Fold each of these.
Amino acid sequence: MSVATLPSLILSVEPPPAVTPAAATPDFHTRPWVHARAIGGVAALGLAAGLAGQTEALARAPAGLAVGAGVVLLATPALIVGHQFLGMKAAPASLVSAVADAFARAGIVALGGAPAVLWLAATSEMGPTLGVLGLLGIGAFALCRVIANLYDVERAAGGAIEGATGFALVWTGLAALIGLRLLYTFAF
Amino acid sequence: MTSSTLAISVATAWLAVGLVVGAALLRRGAGAPAALAAVVVWPAMVSLLASGPALRDIAGPYGAHITAAFTALRAAAADAALAGVLDPVAITAVEVALRQADLRLAAADRLLADPAVAADDGAGRLVSARAHAAEQIEATLRQLVTVRVQVGLVALAGDTGPVRAHLAELAARARALAEVA
Amino acid sequence: MSLFTLTTQVLRDPDAVASSAASAALGRLAPPLLALAVGGAALFGLAAGAGSGPLQATYAAVKMPVLFLLPPLVVLPLVHAFAEACGASVPWSRLSVATLAGLARSGLLAAAAAPVLWLPLSVETPYHLAVLLFVASFMTVLLPALSTVARAVPRGGTLRPMALVGTALTLGLLIAQTGWVLRPFVARPTVAPTFLRAVEGDVFSALGATTRSATGDYDDAWAPESAGVWRERRAE
């Protein structure tokens, strides 16, 4: 026995477009609300880690913000200068927005991880350790995302991919070393 | 503060937030079971606070008919003799899409109520599109009655496959509608 | 929808339940899904504590739903954040329904596994083996919940493997520490039943002490050096 076909519910509406991987020029111009959330996320992670500690541990809560800001301020000029000196095609503004986007995304991850760190810090004395591990984790995520973003902006500008990827790896290595040094200063 | 004290404090704070979320859901018209569930699992329920009033609370011209039709359909699905013939999840998906279509109809009605819009040259197309949309909603509501009749017939015959397949197809279309909306 | 129908649906096709992303569906599905998760977890707890007497079994039955529910709910914001950061955003309501559906499925599996766990624990299994059996059973029944949540996140995006590893590590930490806070579930037969022990140290310092004990070092003269994981060293 067959059932009469039910009428379509389409009311002058097109079927949704198929989801395809983004191949257009990447747009990293995130809204201020996203940046605020990212900054809040890193601060929340630090505060959660310092919750169960003494005043000294709480004072180290903004360490993540200091480390992130330090890496961006210290390493980004080297990125722009080196990128242009080597004749790569992406514009400096694209490079800056690629870095900002990566750090913004990492900050959002930090916000998501803050409740977990809060619970772990509240039930143990692992707070400061978790704070440092959390910062290392989101720092690694940010730098991996930077590599992906730099690859995308160079590809969109029509540049050589192999050179761009190699340069991105070298630069993120430098940024990682700067970040570790700053983390040691602010968190210990 | 010792770890025990801090852990108890965090647990108490969890329950306190849960009570606030549950109370807020009750005020918004969610049922008592949902509010009680929110006390325990409020991280999974906070999205209900941000979703706006429940869809059934704001209705277009066919709101009451849709409510009546799906109440009857769910009553049929809940009948023990017809267990498993209708997919409740697919029913919900169809209802949500139908209500969204009803709301779009209401939006079109509000536009046409504006004299400036009604006097525009393109208003005729809006009127005919509105009429077409209303026809489709009415046809779907009639078909839901047909589904109930055929569910009974199919259940007696034992061949539930076509009914479930058709409802699943309708649910898939409804999901596509909801994503577009 | 009857509870029986929902049970069947959750066991056969949790993804279909998880895809009920509309808010109306979340409000309607949350109570029965929670009931299934809590009921199944309680049965599992009953079986875990049964080897130490009815009182310990009752304590474990009360605490087990917390161990089931708390870690996935606390890690939910991280899953959502990672999905957004990787470029595969998923609505919070969809993730919520998927989590509840996954936990309900795990609760049902836990209820089914309860007699399997109870059998060896009822015949005076050595304590450490009993704990290992409990942990292995717990992780086995919890895995389907995690896979349901993982499938709720759309495919694609950048750095998804990194997100999965980060989420898995965080969830593992949460489960371990929450289990430590709520201990004991499987109690030593010679110890009087207790609901909770004082939260002292953390699961990793306990693991460290167990490791030292396993190497034959039972010295209790330890002094805390500093806060954190590496907080204990031998006193001079």
Note: DSSP finds eight helices and no strands in chain B.
Amino acid sequence: MPKRAVILAAGGGSRGRPFTATKPKSMIFIAGKPMIQHVIEALEENGIRDIIIVVGYRKERLCDFIGSGGSMGVSVNYVVQPRQLGSADALSCASKNLDDPFLVLPGNKFLRADTLAPILNATSPSVLVKTVSDPPRSSIITTKNNRLESGIPLERRTTATFREKGNFTVDTRVYSLDRNIFPFLEEASSIISALDSMMQKGLGVNIVETSGEWSDLIYPWDVLPVNGAVLKHLQPRTAGKIGSDVYLQGNVNVGDGTVIAPHCVISGPVIIGPGCKIGPQVSLKGPLSIGTNTVIETFTYISNSVIGSDVQISPGGIIEDSVIDDGTYIGARFTSVSGEADIHVGSEHYQQKIGCMIGEGCRLGSGIIAKPGSIIGNFCRAEDLKVISGEIPDKSMVV
Amino acid sequence: MCGIVAYIGFQPAAPIIYKCLGKLEYRGYDSCGIAISNRDNITVEKDTKRVAALQFNTLPLDGKIGLGHTRWATCGEPSRANAHPHVDCLHKIAVVHNGNIENFEELRKALVGEGHIFTSETDTEVLPHLIEKYYEGELGQAVTRAIKDIRGSFAIAVICAGEEKVVLAKQKSPLVIGLIDKEYIAASDIAALLDYTDRVMYLEEGDVCNITTVGIELYRNGVLTELTEERIAWKPADTRLGGFSHYMMKEINEQPRVITETLAAFEGVSEKLIGLLDPPENRRTSLLMVGCGTSYHSALVGKYIFEELIGRPVNVELASELNYRANVIADKVALAISQSGETADTLQAVRRIKATGCKMVCITNVEGSQLSRLADLSIYTKAGPEISVASTKTFIAQVALLYAICISHANIDEILKKDLERGLGQIPILIRQFLNEQSNIETLGRYLATFNNVLFVARGINYPVALEGALKLKETSYIHGEGYAAGELKHGPFALLDSNTPAIAIVAHDRTYEAMLTNIREIKTRKAPVIAVVEEGDKEVADLVDIVIEVPHTDPFFSPMLNVVALQLLAYYTALERGCPIDFPRNLAKTVTVE
């Protein structure tokens, strides 16, 4: 059984903008913790406490938060991937520090301790897979008799439409490997393609299926379903000061020093970090995560959203299915109502039911309406009474 | 000013003491040593080395009782003979000591007269000889008797060959015992214990403590006393490098998170604080703030904040100066700032101020520190352990708290208060943005490393930032940096300006802006290269000076928190280029526990 794990967290994640422009994807916060911490906790629960994290893009932010891992009960060491050349290169950066067998995990997928359980006893090399109904093409692999048949993702094998419907086997990016993989990493772009070449050399690659939870975080709107999945397991806790006539329903977790003023209605699952000020008369509907030191002023309604730390939401806001990142200020009567939206990311376009996605450090004036699917970059500003739609690049001024 | 460690338990003591000493190096690192008791023998290994270089494999591995010491020389130069542990004539008693024995000269003369042989120049060495003199078969009694002869400050740990115990005594210097099952580690600071336990016991003034593997006997005022156990919240991992090349860089990068966490934790005490800091009747009398070094600089920023926002005059004093003033003039309440809460000068100042009947509020980073126990109200910076000797994150946390305290004041107009809260709330993300996007400071550091003198100038609320920037440069890169109020330049320092003395100007878009531009022009006329720290997009200054460091736009009232980060990075990269030991500069120690 592997005693050591490598978490790959070096990638840039251009499709995750605006949230990945200022931090690695694994540092996107869900329910008060960065993605990678959920992965670390899953490992810790399985008794794997010796962890190597491959860092690169914006590594300071990750290293600062995770540190040496002691607060999570694990020991973390770092390896730097100088250039972001894919998962195969990232793993080979860590090759000096690895003994057989070892586990490789992504830093930016949501998984839990029981998701990992099946691969812990598998013979390496093996791939942890999951059957998913509408996965992105780039993660679909084919298998036969519990062996890898082709590791080449469907994306490069077919000209099928962008999302396949039906039951597909997806590479969860969790692998149990040994040193035999290293010679194959040099020529490969990803670990799965290295395993594919191993297989073509006649070496068997095992397939282990998990029934545990697993979800991907690629695009900014993926934050919301992941948030929903994490909050399903929320433990209720009330700290801070909860005013009179505050109605709490379902699992609500309130951090130290947070003040919830009278007449708020909070229906869980909702997690509110430490030092926040909520209300009076605010309505919060789960699944909802709120970070540290955030202020949500009176008559605001928020549902199914992720709100970062040091965020300030002025009175009268309506926010549905939205993600607002750290340090953003939102003026009074902000409206972001959820609706079906066509979102363009590069040459691809997606249809989603979504509110808006706002990056870090924005300052939005009063009376702003963000149309469904709008993506506001980091450090943007908007004057009063603007209607925002589509994608606003980082540091723009909406006038 | 030193760090001490003692261990008693069932494991080999040397490796544990060695590891703990490493965590105490911030208290001094001129020399270090370990003593191990192994039945009837005491073996000492000491040298003028850093802890990591100390050879402890010559020590008996089956010794399960031992002492350790890391030294910052105050009495006697750093040498092998002067390093601790010190032993008695018969090599039976070993002592480690943190503090200062004021009457050691006379004690030493008397002991030499009685035939004791001294081998070092330290004040500490009188201790093992005194204990030897009074030893009648039980170490605890001998120590109790010996410390009656001593004036001054001390935290000591003593072992004796043939006795399976460690004796501790404390007077004015910090000492904490970590409790593990049938094992005990005593140390100057909880940082040394974090890897082993979160159960601790703090000793108080005059306590003497006998520790055996069976338990602790605590004598408080000579009476056997029940011990009170406390839990500490710090996690062990916080004191490791975690992916960064230096603690200073790690701590600079922690700053956004530290501000957020400090402010989040602050909300709870604000109401009580307003009543204490500003009762209505004394609004116009001056508020006394004391601190040393970087904490003094954050108090100076506090002066500008309080005076600008609530019009309350503030008098900032260096603790070391206040202690020798004939009169301490304090109002009903005063504020003391110290990262460690163990700074001897600050503690002394607080005792003096309290003696006048004044209430004390303190800002410190260490819960359970002497300062927090002396103060009537303690507000904590949630910075976690700061290892780098040059303070970064605790400065910014202290300043953030001073802003928050002032903004929480009841008399501020509601709309202004909202604006200020919003401004303060955005600082963490703006610092993150700056850390992500700054691109020329590394190059500037290489450039600055070629000079011997650098002038830092600013006006208004950024004047303390100039002082702090100069201090950072001095500490880390050994370049002479001098902070000056820009308006004072023409009263003297102008004589220093030439093409070999660059000036670093911190320019904020407040009412000092025009005056700063004039000052920069004056400096340029003297051919001195000028680097300016400006708000992004400031063309006017950029055209005037040689190089600019651009920080994100913010309300100039909050600009010190961004500008100081630029100067911290500049000091770091300058020191890096010069190959200096950034985290452990020569002749310094993190916590100054002597006057």
Note: Chain A touches chain B at residues 22, 53, 55, 58-71, 76, 78, 255-259, 273-277, 292-293, 295, 309-310, 312, 326-329, 360-361, 363, 378-379 (CB under 8 Å).
